[in-house]
Every structure is written in C-alpha cells, then in structure tokens.
Design goal:
Length: 422
C-alpha cells in the first residue's frame, strides 16, 4: 500500500471512501471553531446524532404510558434487549441465541467466571496476558481468592520476550502446553488495551481446548473494532463493553457471548436472576429457577432501556454501514496513521516508537521517548484528542465510522508543528 503525507492525498482517499457520509452522523467536539482530531474511540466513542431521538422515544413512552410501556411502547421494554441482538451477533460473529446485552463488562465477566471457571483438583490455573487491563486482573484475583486459591501461583501471565512489546502466538501456545495438566481456563483480551495487539483468538482457543481447558475473551477493545467469528472459532465465552468502538455512551450496557454448546448444560453453576428464567413461565413467579436455553440464561435483571436505546442507535449505524466495509476502511485508515507517524519519526529523531504490531485493530500506540506527557499535553492543547497511558504511551485510535484520512493528515501536521516547541 503506497501512502503520501499530503493534504491532497488524504482528501483523495476521503473522496473515494464509501463510508464518508457516516462522519456527519456523529457529533464531533469542536476546538477553536473547527472539529477536533478525535482519536480516542478506543476509550469513548463519539455520540451518534440519532441517540437523541432514540432516547426521546423511550422518554415519551414512559411519560405517556407509564408501566404500560413494558408492553405498549413503540419498542416494548419487556423485549428491549432483543432489539440489540441481531446487530450485536453480526458484529461479534455469533448466532443470535449466543448473544445478549446486559449489565457492565466486569460484572458480566464475574458472572461468566462462576460458570466457566470451576477449579477442580490440580486443574485450577488460569493463563492470561501480561499486564491485562487492571479490571480483568482484579477480577481474576478475586475469583481465585473466592475459591481459596493463590493468584501468585495459580494465575499465569503470558509475557512478551525480553525487549519486545507484544506476544508471539507460538509462545502463548507453548505456555498453554506447559501447564496443560493444571489448566482450567485461558482468558485473554482480544485486543490488548495498551499495545493494540490483536490476539490470535482461534489459535489460542484451539490450544486451550487441546489442553483440556476452556477459552474466554474480554473483547472490550475488539467488539466493533476487528472482525470476529466467535462461534466459528469455538470460543466458549466472551464479554465486552459498548462505549468504546460501539459508541453507546459513557457507562453503556455491556454484552456477553456464550457458545450454544453450553446453553442447555444442566451441570453449569451460575448466579441466577428473574430475567434469566424461562420466558414462558417467568411471570408465573415459580420458586425454582428454570434457565432459558440461550445466552439469556445469564441475565439477572430486566433491560436498562435508556442505556440500551443509545446502544441501539449506534448498532443501527453498524448495520447500515456494513461490518465488512468498516473493517476494510479501518485497516487502511490505521495503516495510514502508522505511515504518518513513521514519516514524522524522521523529524523527531526516531523518538516515536510504535509498539503496536501489524496484527491490530484501529489503534496505534506510541512511546514518545524524551517527550512523554509533555507531547501528549501539547497535542491536547492543539486540538488532538488521543489517550495517555502510564508510564509513557500515547494511544491513537482512528475509527472508521467517523474519522477521516484528513484527520490523520492533520494529526501529523500538528505533531510536526509541535516538534520545534517542546
């Protein structure tokens, strides 16, 4: 792929972009009367303009119908979670019965761990990635403490080789094989939040199953960002949030996937709630829990309709754009950002070290040696909204639904101008 660091080239790419109209479907923050260069969709996606209408519809139905909105609203609240399922299943590559939107990410991971982390005898260890997102680390540690185990010995981190930033798949597989007899679960982030590395989820899942363990993934930085085929890859379970690449708003409703081979298992332990009970008899108020025969069995409570309305607005845009088109543009847009940074590196005396491998989603992470947070703060003051991660990484995420090639070019121009001022 041949790129050029020029405004004409960037605008030519935008003119040929079949998704260019979607940028106008989002609210883009302003800086000095112009749109910011917003490159932090991996932290919080921008607001679709349709969110207001979706929310107002539910507020209107609540005002005019009261409790009757559960069955008489334009989108009946009783079934509201079902309205999100078809799009979400397509985005993560699952069958509709394998997906449900509910709760928050870490809550969902804990609920899934109740069912799929069942340490027995010597088979009690978990393998995860080194420096997993802190919430995942706390979740693993607390689950192990709950079972009376010791995370210092039973939680194993797959670490990059000395001098490298990202994991090699062959090293992960070798680690799984090394601990095969003691392994209960392999659970990785699908895309590493810090480096942006896209993990080889099919290979890791196969290795876990060959070792007699289950395979799960935290898809917080993967859902809506990279192509996923959870069902075909035979992944056992996964969970994700929807406020990053899925643009559903701060603290938005999260989602889970459970492979259908687990749906009707009677030996699974789980924390149960009313909305996970068989829908046909739910309102007969039985005393004994009868689980639904889908991923919905892991639901505890009825749908948070207002949060789900914002999510539905975004998912409808995904369906309109088409995931294949989105992922195609994402690869090209991220590659262009990579090119721009490497071109800038000549000016910055090779101080901008890209630590994101080619296997990635819409993210490029950079260590700015000798510049650090001063550069990040100068970027922010100049109209670039990116993301800082301690101790010294700047994460940039060009999102295909609303970012343009001109955004990426402007990013490079601003950093070029900043170099002489730092």
């Amino acid at each position: 792929m041949s790129f050029e660091n020029s405004l004409n080239y960037a605008r030519a790419c935008d003119s040929q972009d079949p998704l260019r109209a979607f940028r106008d479907k989002f609210h883009i923050p302003q800086f000095n009367g112009a749109p910011v260069v917003y490159l932090t969709g991996n932290s919080l996606g921008l607001q679709p303009k349709t969110v207001t209408a979706y929310l107002l519809q539910e507020l209107h139905d609540w005002a005019s119908l009261g409790v009757e909105g559960h069955v008489k609203a334009k989108h009946p609240w009783m079934l509201y979670h079902e309205f999100l399922t078809p799009a979400m299943a397509e985005i993560v590559g699952a069958e509709p019965s394998e997906v449900v939107m509910m709760n928050q990410l870490t809550v969902n991971l804990h609920l899934l761990m109740v069912s799929f982390y069942r340490p027995t005898g010597k088979r009690k260890k978990i393998i995860c990635e080194h420096k997993a997102f802190p919430s995942d680390q706390y979740m693993f540690q607390s689950q192990m403490h709950w079972h009376g185990l010791n995370p210092e010995t039973d939680l194993i981190s797959a670490k990059p080789r000395t001098g490298e930033w990202h994991l090699r798949t062959e090293d992960v597989i070798q680690l799984i094989q090394m601990h095969a007899d003691e392994l209960a679960l392999v659970c990785f982030g699908g895309v590493h939040y810090y480096t942006g590395q896209l993990m080889d989820m099919p290979a890791i899942t196969r290795a876990a199953h060959q070792a007699g363990a289950l395979a799960g993934f935290d898809l917080a930085h993967a859902a809506g960002n990279v192509e996923l085929k959870l069902h075909d890859w035979n992944i056992d379970f996964a969970a994700w949030c929807s406020y990053k690449y899925l643009n559903s708003g701060p603290g938005a409703v999260a989602g889970i996937y459970v492979h259908k081979k687990h749906h009707q298992r009677t030996d699974l332990k789980q924390f149960s709630g009313w909305w996970g009970h068989d829908a046909a008899s739910r309102f007969k108020m039985p005393e004994t829990f009868k689980p639904m025969s889908t991923a919905e069995r892991w639901q505890l409570s009825n749908a948070p309709v207002l949060s789900m309305a914002a999510c539905r607005a975004s998912l409808d845009l995904f369906l309109e754009a088409g995931t294949s088109q989105l992922f195609k543009k994402s690869k090209m847009l991220t590659a262009y950002l990579d090119f721009i940074i490497r071109d800038l590196n000549k000016q910055y005396a090779n101080a901008l070290e890209i630590i994101t491998p080619d296997a990635r989603g819409a993210q490029v992470s950079v260590v700015a040696h000798g510049y650090g947070k001063n550069l990040f703060e100068a970027m922010t003051a100049s109209g670039i909204i990116a993301d800082w991660r301690e101790p010294n990484v700047i994460r940039c995420a060009p999102v295909p639904l609303y970012n343009s090639f001109e955004d990426v070019f402007r990013f490079g121009q601003i950093l070029s101008q900043l170099q002489g001022t730092l």
